[in-house]
Amino acid sequence: MASDRAYQAVVIGVSAGGMAALERVLPRLAADFSLPVLIVQHVGPVSDSYLPIHFSMRCALPVYEAEDKQPIEAGAIYFAPPNYHLMVERTHTLALSTDDRVNFSRPAVDVLFDTAADAYGPGLVGVILTGSNSDGAAGMARIKRRGGLLVVQTPESAEAPQMPLAVLERVEVDHQLPLSEIGHFLNSLSNE
After folding, report:
1. 124-163: per-residue pLDDT in tens?
2. Which of 35, 93, 88, 26 has the alpha carbon at shortest distance from 60?
3. Residue 79's beta-bridge partner residues?
4. Start and end of every CheB-type methylesterase domain (predicted)?
5. Which domains does the chain have, with CATH numbers?
6. 42 part of the active site
7. Known catalytic residue: 15?
8. Which entry of 105, 114, 135, 190 is annotated as an active-site residue?
9. Which of 14, 37, 129, 172 could be a cystine partner for 18, CB 3.0 to 4.6 Å?
10. Does 85 participate in catalysis according to the annotation?
11. Which residue is catalytic, options 42, 85, 157, 190?
12. Which tens digits make up the pLDDT trace of 28-77?
């Protein structure tokens, strides 16, 4: 199913329909899931920190709102906070930024994916779920150039298919999976 390389981290980008999509992926990650999971869900700039609280009650793994200079731990889930770009430093720590919006978004999927691709190279798994714009397509292309693995939700299983379609138009992905299979697939990568 996957290659023989050892994966080090998973990045997930999601927008419109994201809450329901993440409900079908994150709670399915096993308690012994060994990879950190970094997530950009497009939210408004004055949103509260509902996502980490919501998913911490539904997931076997610890769930955090990302903090600046926080070390990335194996088997933990990190959400980008509202109105901050989430980035990965080469030392595998998190960084937050209030730089300009990218693709009309802050946090932006491309910002996370670009920096994570540079930090993890072929050890990175990029995942794009439902969303109504093209944020994440450039970041997925960068992950591919760095040798990482690309997973895209099948557009027909997405509430908003534009983000998956934008990726499929731009780069050859490794796996197109219906939403119901993505959590199981990620578990298989962690177990390798």
Report:
1. 999 999 999 999 999 999 999 999 999 999 999 999 999 9
2. 26
3. 39, 65
4. 3-192
5. 12-190 (3.40.50.180)
6. yes
7. yes
8. 135
9. 14
10. no
11. 42
12. 999 999 999 999 998 877 677 789 999 999 999 999 999 999 999 999 99
